[in-house]
Amino acid sequence: MEFASYISQAESTIDAAQQLIDQARQHPGRIDLAMVFFTSYHQPQAGELVERLWLELDPQALVGCSAEGVIGGELEVERQPGMSLLVGRLAPGVRAHPFHVSEHQWRQLLSDAELFGHRLGVGPQTRVVIGMGDPWTTPITQLMQVMDTLCPQAPLVGGMASAARDAGQNLLVRNDQTFDEGLVGVSLSGAIQVQTIVSQGARPIGRPLIVTRGHDNVIEQLGGRPALEAFGQIVQDLSRRDQELLEHGLLIGQAISEYREHFGRGDFLVRNVTGVDQQRGAITVGDLVRVGQTVQFHVRDADSADEDLRLMLEAAARSGAAPEAGLLFSCNGRGTRMFDRPGHDITLARRLLPGTPVAGFFAAGEFGPVGGRNFIHGHTASLALLRQVR
Fold it and tell me: pLDDT digits over 187-204, tens only?
């Protein structure tokens, strides 16, 4: 199994496509899988772009989408002309199944296990589903719930296309076709190992607390005290730096498992605190809550995001041979919107996984598992690392 990643900043779509094709042709042997990501500057000629890639590279599967920014080679290209391409030869015994699910097919698909497995190409041997969705026409929460039930061994990794401001303005790619709605992707099955990384880029503050009263997405009490009162006590004990970070937004982490004496990195699903009720002393969060759940407040800044991703990549590098390929889906709130220099996430990935070609895009919501369950995230870097079974 061998992969390569390329990127072009050419303003002309045809020139960018030809640059990538010329480089990809230097890749030895056949191309089984190709993934292409392009910014909105290239959408008007996306049909011709896809046709060229399909005919000239002749992959078994081609998937991709439009995005606000793209990642590949050694670069991240944000809000300007950019196109990235990952190409690779799969090992014997690895099957790639490209798919597209249109908006009107979701209801039947999500209620029919046999049809679901056939359309997405998932089964007991599936190791990962890599997906790119249109935010307006993909019921991502329901999809993840079905995947958790039907194929818990196969995480969903990817993200929402981010080139559009309105429905119908994103483009999705499957083989030689483009679509402006639904979900595209590829499932990989058989003799392949897939390691996932979900770097939520947040740091806990205070201590874990138990939800003692709440409903829906409202936390009324924490540890038997009004939620705002409990939070106020935490704030008093914070450093001035952490208090300043609260001005940029407060997060709350929901423990994936309650059966731990100590909680650390990767044990929480991080969500936004979306509002407060001063009169009732309650807070609202961007997810459902339940009584008895363990939660902990979090903050996010560039330093926390850098540390979180770096530690996770270092652990991945220690866990085995260098991956043959990496797919990186970073939130479009990261990049230069979060860090003081461009290319932060790709630079870390290339430095800590030096033998691994990486490609991806800046997403409007990132897919990745936490605690063995699929979730959609924000401000996250989600990765799928592909390794050949040896």
Answer: 999 999 999 999 988 888
pLDDT for residue 95:
95
CB 309 within 8 A of CB 348: yes
User: Which residues make Cβ contacts (< 8 Å) with residue 354, sequence separation at least 6?
Assistant: 322
Q: Around 236, how many Cα atoms within 13 Å sit in the side-chain half-sphere?
A: 6
Q: Chain-centre distance of CA 301, in angstroms?
A: 19
Average pLDDT of the segment spanning 334-360? 93
Whether 35 contacts 327, CB under 8 Å: yes
Residue 71, both tokens:
């990642």
Distance CA 178, CA 174 (A): 6
Supply φ then ψ for residue 290, to 5 degrees.
-145, 150
Q: What sign for the dihedral angle of Cα 48, 53, 54, 57?
A: positive
H-helix or E-strand containing 302?
Answer: helix 302-318
pTM: 0.90
Torsion sign (Cα): 223, 225, 230, 233: negative
Structure tokens at 273: 């605190």
* Cα–Cα distance measured from residue 294 to residue 103, given in angstroms and rounded to the nearest whole number: 36
Model confidence pLDDT, tens digit, residues 160-182: 999 988 888 999 999 999 999 99
Q: Report yes or no: 345 and 309 within 8 Å, Cβ to Cβ.
A: yes
Q: Phi first, then psi: give them for residue 34, nearest 5 degrees.
A: -130, 140
Token pair recorded at residue 206: 């205070």
Cβ proximity of 327 and 358 under 8 Å = yes
Instruction: Give me the pLDDT at residue 261, please.
Output: 66
Report how far Cα 138 is from the mean position of its chain's Cα atoms: 15
Position 144: which residue type? Answer: M
For 66, 78, 169, 184, 189, the CA distances from 44, given in Å and listed in that order, are 11, 18, 11, 19, 34
Q: Give 220-243 pLDDT, tens digit per residue.
A: 999 999 999 889 888 888 888 888
Q: How many CB atoms lie within 10 A of CB 22?
A: 11
Residue 304 or 159, more confident: 159
- What are the backbone angles phi and psi of residue 175, rounded to the nearest 5°? 55, -120
Tell me the two tokens of residue 270: 């991080």
